[in-house]
What we know:
Blueprint: H1 5-8, H2 15-35, H3 39-50, H4 53-75, H5 81-101, H6 107-123, H7 129-132, H8 134-151, H9 155-166, H10 170-194, H11 203-225, H12 229-256
Amino acid sequence: MSELLPLLLPENLAPQWALVLILTAALTSAVTAAMGAGGGVMLLAVMALVMPAAAIIPVHGMVQLGSNANRVLLTWRDVNWRVIAWFAPGVILGAYAASLLLVRLPLELVQLSIAAFILVLCWGPAIPKVATGPVGTLLASTVTSFVSLFVGATGPLVAAFIKQQQSHRRLQTVATFAAAMTLQHLPKAFAFTAAGFIFRDWLALIAAMIAAGAGGTWLGLHLLRRMSDQHFGRIFNLVLTLLAIRLAWEAVHNWLA
């Protein structure tokens, strides 16, 4: 088995680092399932330490696609399918617009904007019902799907928007967020393939990380079901606030660099 493992991995990734990534995928999937968000950003940070720069975003996108799809399979009864029905067309519109425009958005401005919106959605007054209704969901999906293909940092914003709709109902929040992000990560497979990224070299690692993430998701959902809605709401807001602060800090750091 130890002799076979290097043959399944890209040449520029050592087996010990592959094992670290697989274990991290399990841990971060458990974090997202239990707390509602945060695991994807944690996984991205670890991947950035050990993987070639060109592979980080494509591989992360596919692992997150698998991780979110696993959560949907385990929580499909709790998904708010009415929200997803309006979210799905926005994903198509946003991804299509991004493929046509092919613009390079100012990363720092996008990060600060996302951070500000997350803080408002978490700690500000409840947004009007029309903003979380069908039209608002379609608009939010279109904008975040468009931005996601360029900066890949819209998960916390989508999570904060979904939280506003579900009124801290923990299982429905986590399940609906997972379904929304499954849809939003899906176009990345086509976009990065069209851009020339060779997924074949990374398929074994991606599959192993998704499988490990499935175990982490099961554990995280077990912990989630033991929480109260009120406790989950406080943790969820805290996690999203920390992610927003991290985004804002990165934006300021990059601007001043």
